[in-house]
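Lab meeting, action items carried over

1. Structure of the two-component assembly. Owner: GW. Status: complete.
Input record:
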Amino acid sequence: MPMARKIDEIDMKILKLLAENARYTYKELAEKLGTTRQRVSRRMDKLEKSGVVIKYTLIPDLNKLNHVHVILGLTLRPTVDLDEVVEQLKSIDYVKIIEKTLGSHSLIIHLVGPNDMALTEKMIRSIAKEIHGIDKMDITFVTEICKFEVI
Amino acid sequence: MPMARKIDEIDMKILKLLAENARYTYKELAEKLGTTRQRVSRRMDKLEKSGVVIKYTLIPDLNKLNHVHVILGLTLRPTVDLDEVVEQLKSIDYVKIIEKTLGSHSLIIHLVGPNDMALTEKMIRSIAKEIHGIDKMDITFVTEICKFEVI
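Predicted assembly:
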């Protein structure tokens, strides 16, 4: 893992503001921080290049879009090559989020698809079939997002 | 649950572009869609008001910020009032994400805190102690985000 560049207090303030609303303009950020647009923009460039910012995105209410959101907690056999499994999962379009984890699960993945039980079952069974070395799969359906903050 | 307003193809295109990069300007979105800034802005207003957009945010690499990211899968006793538990959790600052779920877990929550094992243990134990009716708690530490898409 590459060492992180030193993140100072102003960086943290910028990150927290963008976590609150990623669409704040440079002007709005500069006003909130009492600095200039140029300074904000320069710092954001650095934060983006250093990999601290994975992405700016929107969090949708998938129910309102008539989509299902399933979280699978996968426990893999200890001998399995985790990176190989990750590469395999990355190429599956409906696998939206992949997190490497330690603890109860080896991987947590999020599936998103049309709100149709037969299709949902197909997605889940296809993961179970195609990924070798799954010891246990915890299946959880997200019904409501009650809080969403990141830092 | 209130009925969603009809989401058409152009709405979906806007949402997908913003999911890809929430910082696209109205101008950039309009160019990508072959329409005007005014039309994009009007549609985004509607999508925001309808609750389809929960928020625009950044996804940080918490490791690089020297933070830990823990996902707890909580299984609650069937008699527990889920909404009461959610309200209790909402007020805890280090509980960043709360999702109501069906299946292996009744709730999935994300904790974020300083990268310190003693503090992390304290956060987790405090949840276990303060929230009544937890039958089972799956504890998972996120070590790497390998893919992050939303729709």
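2. GW to write a short summary for the group page. Key points so far: The first strand of chain A starts at residue 53 and ends at 60. The mean pLDDT of chain A is 95.
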